[in-house]
Design goal:
- With 259 residues, this protein is an all-alpha fold.
- Helices cover 87% and strands 0% of the residues.
- The protein has eight helices and no strands.
- The longest helix is centred in the first third of the chain and has 40 residues.
Length: 259
């Protein structure tokens, strides 16, 4: 195989996959407003996605708050700026750390689960059976899961932010003897709508990207049971990459319009 072929073949496969993902996205927006609306399946997926991720998000958020405060406190203490910890921690968590870390956790937990679930249905011909029986598998399997991840991820991010700030308070109450009321008064006094709104909006896009990539990889899964593992793995890799790209674009737009 020539050097040109070794470079062009992966590039060609990548461009084909981007084109298929674009078509998949367009198909989603075409069919999302068409009847029938699978509302019960949507609610079930919201419950599964939230319930499946809640414990991991809780543990991760608490540890982030604890570690972040423990790492920054000695440095701020040298400059006599310990009183700035509530403001610094809350702004950092809500603007950037909370959304991106929670998004990556959900990409690994939810994205891989969706890819494996729909992929296994594809290789066992359950999706083909749904098409034969007159059910629209795209609306029932894909649209409900994408909408569920889009709705649930911002809620998980808000919950993770609160747990992380509470973890920071635990450190400060232990080392600095700060009351709960004083700590959270400083937190809320330091926050503005320009901190909350962009972070919440990009969380919707994070959830959409995770659901879209997971469903795409599972829906077009092949190679039998081996393909299920490939779909789950690639769903995590692709969705994590999309999260960083979306986050970069969101920060650029926020800096243009807010500052």
């Amino acid at each position: 195989m020539s050097a040109f072929s070794r470079i062009s073949n992966p590039l060609k496969s990548f461009l084909i996959e981007i084109g298929e993902l674009s078509y998949f996205t367009i198909r989603f927006f075409k069919e999302v407003f068409k009847k029938p609306y699978e509302f019960q399946e949507f609610l079930k997926q919201c419950f599964y996605i939230g319930n499946r991720s809640l414990f991991l998000v809780t543990v991760t958020g608490l540890i982030i708050g604890l570690v972040f405060t423990l790492q920054t406190r000695p440095t701020l203490q040298e400059f006599g700026a310990v009183s700035m910890i509530p403001a610094m921690v809350s702004i950092s968590l809500i603007r950037e750390i909370g959304p991106i870390i929670t998004g990556l956790i959900c990409a690994g937990k939810i994205g891989s689960g969706i890819g494996a679930e729909i992929g296994s249905m594809r290789v066992t011909e359950q999706i083909d059976a749904m098409e034969v029986s007159g059910t629209n598998p795209f609306k029932y399997l894909v649209i409900t899961r994408i909408l569920a991840t889009t709705v649930m991820l911002p809620l998980l991010v808000i919950y993770s932010d609160f747990i992380a700030i509470f973890g920071s308070y635990l450190v400060e109450s232990t080392k600095g003897n700060v009351s709960f009321t004083l700590y959270f008064n400083q937190v809320f006094n330091s926050l503005e709508f320009s901190d909350l709104i962009p972070a919440t909006i990009k969380s919707f896009f994070f959830g959409f990207a995770i659901g879209l990539v997971g469903c795409f990889k599972g829906y077009y899964c092949n190679k039998g049971t081996e393909g299920v593992g490939i779909a789950a793995n690639s769903a995590v890799v692709y969705s994590s990459t999309f999260l960083f790209i979306i986050d970069f674009i969101a920060v650029l737009i926020t800096n243009i319009f807010v500052t």
